[in-house]
């Protein structure tokens, strides 16, 4: 297949996102700019002012400088060396995308950002940073690291990368729209009442809403300023008493959204934010800032004006995580729709993949097209991960024209999702083309056992994701295996597919509560050969257990799609696991069979037969 005949997608592209050949010249230019300012180095995070997972194109400074396009990482450029510090998900990708003769990829788990600075910043060295791109806590850590090296940290009023980026894209200008009340399930006025009560309990005078997800949720608005997540990039200030102010470009706000915001608050241009923060400071206000998303620059503006910045928990995060009845019903409806699309897709794949003509790009395009046929798809919820063979061993693989592989006998992994107005979906299925090896069946079944273990769990109120994560890993551990990502992340309601604070992870310290949506996605990855991951979305719900002395929770599964029977080694499953899988498949058939027909229905019937 030539480039000219590659299939196209509405929401995804397959062009190579970076060019390592550009890195050397750009790093050299940055060093010259730093030297002219008397600086010995500069930190470049993969972040915008909101610390979002997706950054708008004009904020992708790390990608422009180093070529690395992953969702997390930091670069540090000194006069004589430069490092690109990424987590274990991106070890291979970072080395492929940057010029390693100029920038050295560093594994964060071995050498965190702060330690690298301690070890490499010269004594007396001045390390620059952009205070709009780092949180208060992040700056404190950088200051400590620079001091440990015998140097100092310097806040810059302008980001030096921006002056070098001659073809920098324009800021996004997507319209801000109202999110229908039928899907939101609660009015902005009711949400603001809850927020004000939380501010009173915390004894703070105001809250700066710096997370666009929180902004969208509170005021029941959605936008399109970043890819795959319907976010309006902006801020709000919610006082403990009085009307809030939303900082969004007025020309972006539709009449309906303007009416929704205007009913409860004021609208101001983004440039007015600094003036409002200074007014709060001058009034000696104590202002809550979200420790995870609020820029250090916000705290400085409040403090310098005489106020008290209070970096802590944004009360909106937990409110947003606990979905209401309308949001949960919307999620269930979205997953039924999505499950039918997946059934049509997997049945097509079962017919076409063995012919040996499909590529990863073909597979991505076909799945997006299947979701578009629902007539309700607004976007994909993230760039589809579709890995054949060794590409499946890269947990965050993104197919491009350069990496596109044919689907040959062996493993094919597809992790994808859709953004619908009523809900956000995320599902992973691993299939086999041809006959699997005994090893593949063993590894798949271990992953499936961990996946089923999470699905069947019951746990006491107050339990966090960190306390549950090991249940997904135990079958892998028993064979001497593991996976290097969390078992599950929170999911938003027509918002981000990755939502906190809830997570199933060694780092998940937030207690799980009813209404929270999470993913359940253990995996196994054999570098250079194949990878396996199985993912459903689950909802925390209360369970009624006769005689229980504590409040007990469990999980409702809301994703409906068969597992890969050819990869299941039935002899490795116990009776309870077999019963759960059979019951799940029976429900998949009951829910999806009325929505599909023809070859897809025949495929589904076969896929859902009892083990």
Automatic annotation (TrEMBL):
UniProt region (Disordered), positions on chain: 1-22
**KW Lipoprotein (keyword) present:** no
Which residues lie in Polar residues bias regions?
A: 1-16
Q: Name one Pfam family in it.
A: Creatinase_N
Recall the GO molecular function terms of this protein's record.
metal ion binding; metalloaminopeptidase activity
| Keyword annotations | Aminopeptidase, Hydrolase, Metal-binding, Protease
For the keyword Protease, the answer is yes
What are its GO cellular component terms? cytoplasm
CDD domains referenced in this protein's UniProt entry, alphabetically? APP
Give every Peptidase M24 C-terminal domain span: 553-611
> Where is each Creatinase N-terminal domain found?
26-156
- InterPro entries for this protein: Creatin/AminoP/Spt16_N (IPR029149), Creatinase/aminopeptidase-like (IPR036005), Creatinase_N (IPR000587), Pept_M24 (IPR000994), Pept_M24B (IPR033740), Peptidase_M24_C (IPR032416), X-Pro_aminopeptidase_P (IPR050422)
Q: Ranges for the Peptidase M24 domain?
A: 331-542
Origin superkingdom? Bacteria
Q: Which family does it belong to?
A: Belongs to the peptidase M24B family.
UniProt protein name? X-Pro aminopeptidase
**What high-level taxonomic lineage is stated for the organism?**
Bacteria, Pseudomonadati, Pseudomonadota, Alphaproteobacteria, Hyphomicrobiales
């Amino acid at each position: 297949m030539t480039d000219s005949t590659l299939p196209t997608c509405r929401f995804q592209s397959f062009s190579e996102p970076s060019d390592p050949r550009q890195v050397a010249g750009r790093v050299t230019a940055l060093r010259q700019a730093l030297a002219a300012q008397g600086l010995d180095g500069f930190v470049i995070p993969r972040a915008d002012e909101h610390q979002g997972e997706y950054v708008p194109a004009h904020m992708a400074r790390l990608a422009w400088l180093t070529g690395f396009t992953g969702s997390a990482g930091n670069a540090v450029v000194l006069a004589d060396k430069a490092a690109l510090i990424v987590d274990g998900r991106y070890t291979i990708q970072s080395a492929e995308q940057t010029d390693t003769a100029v920038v050295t990829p560093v594994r964060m788990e071995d050498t965190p950002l702060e330690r690298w600075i301690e070890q490499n910043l010269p004594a007396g060295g001045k390390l620059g940073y952009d205070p709009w791109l780092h949180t208060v806590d992040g700056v404190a850590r950088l200051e400590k690291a620079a001091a440990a090296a015998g140097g100092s940290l310097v806040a810059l009023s302008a980001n030096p990368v921006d002056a070098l980026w001659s073809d920098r894209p324009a800021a996004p200008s997507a319209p801000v729209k109202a999110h229908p009340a039928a899907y939101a399930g609660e009015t902005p006025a009711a949400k603001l009442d809850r927020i004000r009560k939380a501010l009173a309990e915390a004894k703070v005078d105001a809250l700066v809403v710096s997370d666009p997800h929180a902004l969208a949720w509170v005021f029941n608005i959605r936008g399109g300023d970043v890819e795959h997540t319907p976010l309006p990039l902006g801020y709000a200030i919610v006082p403990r008493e009085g009307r809030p102010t939303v900082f969004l470009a007025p020309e972006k706000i539709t009449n309906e959204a303007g009416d929704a915001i205007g009913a409860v608050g004021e609208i101001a241009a983004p440039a007015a934010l600094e003036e409002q923060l200074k007014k709060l400071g001058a009034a000696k206000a104590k202002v809550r800032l979200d420790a995870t998303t609020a820029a250090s620059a916000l705290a400085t503006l409040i403090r310098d004006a005489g106020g008290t910045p209070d970096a802590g928990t944004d009360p909106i995060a937990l409110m947003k995580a606990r979905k209401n009845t309308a949001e949960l019903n919307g999620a269930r409806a979205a997953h039924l729709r999505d499950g039918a699309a997946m059934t049509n897709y997997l049945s097509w794949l079962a017919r076409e993949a063995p012919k040996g003509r499909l590529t990863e790009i073909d597979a991505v395009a076909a799945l997006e097209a299947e979701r578009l046929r629902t007539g309700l798809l607004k976007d994909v919820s993230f760039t589809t991960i579709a890995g054949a063979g060794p590409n499946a061993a890269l947990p965050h693989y993104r197919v491009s024209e350069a990496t596109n592989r044919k689907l040959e006998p062996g493993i094919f992994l597809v992790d994808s999702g859709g953004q619908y107005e009523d809900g956000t979906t995320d599902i992973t299925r691993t299939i086999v083309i041809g006959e699997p090896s005994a090893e593949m069946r063993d590894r798949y079944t271990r992953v499936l056992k961990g996946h089923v273990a999470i699905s069947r769990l019951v746990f006491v109120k107050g339990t966090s994701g960190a306390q549950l994560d090991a249940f997904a890993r135990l079958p892998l551990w028993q064979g001497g295996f593991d996976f290097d990502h969390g078992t599950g992340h929170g999911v938003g309601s027509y918002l981000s597919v990755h939502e906190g604070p809830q997570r199933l992870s060694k780092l998940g310290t937030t207690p799980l509560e009813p209404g929270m949506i999470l993913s359940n996605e253990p995996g196994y990855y054999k570098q250079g050969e194949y990878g396996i991951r199985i993912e459903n979305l689950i909802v925390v719900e209360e369970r009624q257990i006769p005689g229980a002395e504590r409040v007990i929770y469990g999980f409702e599964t809301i994703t409906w799609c068969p597992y890969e029977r050819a990869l299941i080694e039935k002899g490795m499953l116990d009776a309870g696991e077999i019963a759960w899988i059979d019951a799940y498949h029976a429900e998949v058939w009951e829910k999806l069979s009325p929505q599909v027909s023809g070859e897809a229905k025949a495929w589904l019937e076969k896929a859902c037969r009892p083990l």
